[in-house]
Design a protein that fits this description.
61% helix; globular; four-stranded mixed beta sheet; alpha+beta; single chain
């Protein structure tokens, strides 16, 4: 079998091993919980267009990813975390495969396309997003499909209308996933970089198809927003609040993103060197394409830096052109590493891959020291992970010393796959909470005591998700209501205990137990008050 003829198949196999395995290993986080609750209420309550969370309108985020998640849940089960995360994994697979086709069209070099796509598939935040039920990967994957079609539209003279219309559709899908985020952080820097490097040629023959692109993009992007604004005016205030977050929430300095290349994980050093344009420009096989990916990456970081609100996960779109950019450096090492004599060129390579090998060598001992308190019942996974990482590390060092950088590169991919296969199940070894008590157990208590349970102050998405259905809040816009029942249950956060006594001073309050969904116990610094509640039975006197 000739490897170069099976790059796409190898990419699919690699993505399957990294994105789809052990999808249910990690607990549902706060962002996922919000999205999964909305998907659940689509299925249980039929709220497909006027989307809700715990019965309340939720229009801050467009619904396309939620629809896809709800479809997956309808097929595989609403309680299956694997099913709920599956669409994100599929979208990331599409992103990686599209990046291969894009890179191939950009350079006419299959090996480079394969290398850059593997880097993308194994970059830290890409992997994290593929295995997480958040909506970021949807908007950027759809936008990359749009970008690929626009690239073909601007560089080919055939089928202009088909490409423009499809590009407009995928643009709309991106907008229906998370609004204008990807337009600003991924498409706009692409258009600027493309204009600088390749120019927009024969524009007179393209303006009508571009007009069709804009019409389709506008319709697909805007119809749901039009619908919510017309059929539920409350959406206006909610949407405005979400929009103002871009300028008033999580404000960070301009330079906050300057360490963006570290988000690529094991490719941090190669990504940094790939951005040293004066060094690499005369070493790459395609100077024009390299300049394009370099500008695309840098412009994306600059545009994101101009927005006052900054979070590390907002760097996800930067990792897409950066993977293409880093691919030029790795391809150069494939061709020339054996010939390199200058230590300034070889030391970063030895350090980067040597560090990965070192981690694999020391893991059996270091991992045991770190995980020993939680290895009961997890010894098999620990043994498999230790053996896999140690074996891969030995071969990394062996090939590194022989300057077989191609083999070292592929072994690094295997290293990451081993962590996903055998390491993620070990997450249970570091999440030990002897007081763990899930909200799902509330159903048994409600049935046994024949009472209804309310939440006192505010919703915590992870708790509502685990509860399995909507929970009524006693706090309605700062006003606390009293249930009609003479006897009812109330869940109270630690911060609200005093207020709870003040609101119901003449009621009998009997503390029953604590429901705690923290992964770690009360002695841990990561134990959060928002993830547990005190359950009281309140009786009217």
């Amino acid at each position: 079998m000739k490897v170069e003829k099976n790059y796409l198949l190898l990419l699919v196999i690699t993505c399957a091993a990294i994105f789809f395995v052990n999808l249910n290993s990690l607990p549902v986080n706060i962002m996922e919980a919000r999205n999964f609750i909305t998907a659940r209420e689509m299925l249980t309550d039929g709220n497909w267009l006027l989307t809700t969370i715990n019965g309340e309108p939720r229009y801050q985020k467009p619904p396309l990813p939620t629809w896809l998640t709800a479809f997956s849940a309808a097929i595989f089960g609403i309680k299956s975390i694997w099913a709920l995360r599956l669409p994100a994994a599929i979208m990331t697979l599409i992103l990686v495969l599209c990046s291969y086709k894009f890179s191939q069209k950009l350079t006419s070099e299959k090996l480079y396309a394969f290398i850059s796509s593997l880097i993308m598939a194994t970059s830290f935040y890409i992997v994290a997003s593929a295995r997480d039920g958040q909506w970021d990967i949807y908007t950027h994957s759809f936008m990359f499909l749009c970008i690929y079609l626009l690239y073909l539209f601007f560089t080919k003279e055939t089928h202009k209308y088909q490409k423009a219309l499809l590009a407009g559709f995928f643009f709309g899908c991106s907008f229906l996933s998370k609004g204008p985020v990807s337009f600003y952080a991924l498409l706009l820097p692409f258009l600027i970089a493309f204009g600088i490097v390749y120019k927009y040629k024969n524009f007179k023959t393209r303006w009508l198809p571009l007009l069709a692109f804009l019409v389709v993009a506008t319709i697909v992007s805007g119809w749901w927003h039009w619908y919510t604004l017309n059929f539920d005016p409350a959406a206006v205030a909610i949407t405005k609040k979400e929009t103002t977050n871009w300028i008033s929430y999580e404000i960070k300095p301009f330079y906050y993103y300057w360490s963006f290349f570290t988000q690529s994980g094991v490719w941090t050093i190669p990504a940094f060197i790939g951005l040293l344009y004066p060094y690499l420009k005369n070493r790459v096989f395609n100077k024009k394409a390299y300049l394009f990916t370099f500008l695309w990456t840098v412009l994306s970081v600059i545009l994101l830096s101009l927005i006052p609100e900054k979070k590390s996960r907002y760097l996800l779109p930067v990792l897409i052109p950066m993977a293409l950019n880093t691919g030029f450096y790795i391809e150069y090492l494939f061709r020339r590493f054996r010939e390199l004599k200058d230590k300034r060129e070889t030391i970063p390579v030895y350090f980067n891959f040597g560090l990965i090998g070192f981690i694999g060598i020391v893991f059996p001992i270091g991992g045991y020291i770190f995980l020993k308190d939680g290895l009961a019942g997890n010894w098999l996974w620990f043994a498999l992970l230790s053996f896999a990482l140690f074996t891969v590390a030995v071969f990394i060092f062996r090939n590194l010393f022989r300057k077989k950088i191609t083999t070292v590169f592929y072994l690094t991919i295997a290293f990451i796959a081993a962590v996903i296969w055998f390491g993620l199940p070990l997450s249970k070894a570091i999440t030990i909470n002897p007081d763990y008590k899930p909200f799902s157990e509330l159903h048994d208590f409600e049935e046994r005591e024949n009472l209804k349970i309310y939440e006192f102050s505010g919703m915590t998405p992870e708790l509502i998700w685990d509860y399995g259905k909507k929970m009524e809040m006693l706090n309605k816009d700062g006003e606390f209501s009293t249930p009609a029942e003479n006897r009812f249950g109330v869940l109270v956060s630690e911060e609200s205990l005093k207020h709870f006594e003040e609101v119901y001073p003449n009621f009998k309050r009997e503390h029953i137990t604590r429901y705690d969904m923290n992964p770690k116990g009360p002695d841990s610094k990561t134990h959060k008050t928002r993830l547990y509640r005190e359950l009281f039975i309140v009786t009217k006197k």
